[in-house]
Design a protein that fits this description.
five-stranded mixed beta sheet, about 20% strand, alpha+beta, Cytidine Deaminase, domain 2, single chain, about 120 residues
Length: about 120
């Protein structure tokens, strides 16, 4: 993964809407075409209705015509939650990069992050 993807995610995090937790998360996903889509977490007073940064980035890519297999890698400013790990698996990303709590930047496949993920029906 090129460092530019993580830098884009970090820059995007500053635009997150998180007035309740003040936990700003950014994500940047690269499509096979080379285009990069950014996303941020967006909270809502009805707390479960918020959306995570990686899902926002993937949704932006979908609006632009991308589907499963069209996205290559994603960088996130935090470890993805369980629900987002299923999204990363379902969209068949090759690599997921994020900094651990101590600052070490790590990369995994979605399968490493979510063993026994649900697969799409045949």
């Amino acid at each position: 993964m090129s460092d530019d993807l993580l830098a884009r995610a970090q820059a995007a995090a500053g635009r997150a809407y998180a007035p309740y937790s003040n936990y700003l998360v950014g994500a940047a996903v690269r499509a096979r075409s080379g285009r990069i889509y950014e996303g941020v977490n967006v909270e809502n007073a009805a707390y479960p209705l918020g959306i995570c940064a990686e899902r926002t980035a993937i949704a932006c890519a979908v609006v632009d015509g991308c589907g499963p297999g069209d996205l290559v890698e994603i960088a996130i400013t935090a470890s993805p939650c369980g629900g987002c790990r299923q999204w990363l698996h379902e969209f068949r990303l090759g690599r997921v990069t994020f900094p651990r709590a101590g600052g070490e930047v790590v990369s995994f496949t979605p399968g490493d992050l979510l063993p026994e993920a649900w697969d799409l029906p045949a």
